[in-house]
Amino acid sequence: MIYPDGSVHRVISDLSSLIGRETGHRLLAAGDLNILYGYGEHGSGYWGSPLCHCVSRMSALGLVFVGPQAPGGRRADPWPDELPRSSNNVPTYHTARQAPAGATRQLDFVFASSGLAPGVRVTALNEPDRWGPSDHCRVVIEVAG
Question: What's the whole-model pTM score?
């Protein structure tokens, strides 16, 4: 099992140095966090919380989770057993044993400053014919005005 949340928390600490005031900043943070959102590895409740803690820390910095989430990308098919049916996660990563069509894990996430977030649209280009050459699909981030 990978224990990535330590590195994610270090990144969040680094981001905090870029934010000089409580409100009014305009910041986008996006990337491969290598953690799961809303569930744990193999359905573990214990390991299901790291991204929730990250979302809370990002929120404390004034950054809102903006995606990608369905309908901004296709959902996993087949649906992973441990992923709750209520999840809006979209696969953004495939293993070496999978093709993009069989991808089931979302490891890529985008956050935006709370004032910027309403105008941000995030789309995972995770259809097999749009995936691209990487094991992570491309993610489009559009920011209005």
Answer: 0.85
